Amino acid sequence: MTLKTQPQYGFEDYLAAERAGRDVKHEYVNGEVFAMTGASFNHNLIVLNLGSELRARLKDRPCHVLPSDMRVRIESANAGKYPDLTVLCEPPRFHDDRQDVLLNPALIVEVLSASTEAYDRGGKFATYRRLPSLEEYVLVSQDQPLVELFTRQPDGRWVLGETEGLDAEVVFASLGCRVAMREIYDKVDFEQGDD
Predict the structure, then answer these.
(1) What is the mean pLDDT of residues 113-139?
(2) Does residue 92 contact residue 70 with C-beta atoms inside 8 Å?
(3) Given strand 71-74, what is the order of strands in its sheet?
(4) Paired residues of 15 in beta bridges
(5) Predicted confidence (pLDDT) at residue 8 exceeds the cutoff of 90
(6) How far, CA to CA in Å, does 175 sit from each of 55, 136, 152, 194?
(7) Given strand 158-164, what is the order of strands in its sheet?
(8) The pTM is what?
(9) Distance between CA atoms of residues 166 and 182, nearest Å
(10) Where are the alpha helices (DSSP H) in the chain?
């Protein structure tokens, strides 16, 4: 991500500007606005594969699987993000009547890339952890069949679990379902570089 050259914004100013121009997405972090870059072919395949698999497993439940255009507001961190996938099984709560800023995701997925991996693991995860509704944070590698799943414990600690290899399954405890790694990585070419 690159820092936009504008000075500090309030969240409502950022939101008005973001809603007015949909050709570029930006994330908001405590007054600063960051332009987001496009994603690679593999990145998009992984997001669609995992989103489709989760939707199929949750179809008969009151759950929603949302793509990267759903903005998530982290009020306690004064931030707005665009996760690669967002899942919730409670009635959605929104920032306002436009219903384009979600407040209560249960699970967030980020597909890692060389340019965002450090941020996704560090600052972004620290921000997402401030969401009271968040139960699981999922990092998906593009370079190898590897999914890292951070699960919030009853005492507030986050515990890391890893699923590796195409023959394994990822267990999403917060959703009560599992997805085969082979499905997440369907048609992904690991020789192709990431974004």
Answers:
(1) 95
(2) no
(3) 2-3, 32-35, 26-29, 79-81, 71-74, 101-102
(4) none
(5) no
(6) 11, 9, 13, 28
(7) 64-66, 85-88, 107-111, 136-140, 146-152, 158-164
(8) 0.85
(9) 5
(10) 11-20, 41-58, 117-121, 123-128, 181-184
12-59 pLDDT, tens per residue? 887 887 777 656 677 778 888 777 766 889 999 999 999 999 999 999
What are the structure tokens assigned to 152, written together? 């919030």
**136 Cβ partners below 8 Å, 6+ apart?**
106, 107, 108, 149, 150, 151, 152, 172, 173, 174, 175
Q: What pLDDT is stored for residue 7 in this prediction?
A: 61
Q: Encode pLDDT of 148-182 as tens digits.
A: 999 999 999 999 999 999 999 999 999 999 999 99
Other C-beta atoms closer than 10 Å to the C-beta of 140 total 26
State how beta strands 85-88 and 107-111 pair: antiparallel
Q: Which two tokens stand for residue 29?
A: 């972090």
Which residues touch 19 (CB under 8 Å, ≥6 apart)?
98, 100
> In a 3-state reduction of DSSP, which class is residue 51?
helix
Whether residue 37 contacts residue 4, with contact meaning beta carbons closer than 8 Å, is answered with no
Rounded to 5°, angle at Cα 59 from 25 and 162: 70
Residue owning tokens 């941020």: 119
What does the H/E/C string look like for 86-137? EEECCCCCECCCCCCEECCCCEEEEECCCCCHHHHHCHHHHHHCCCCCCCEE
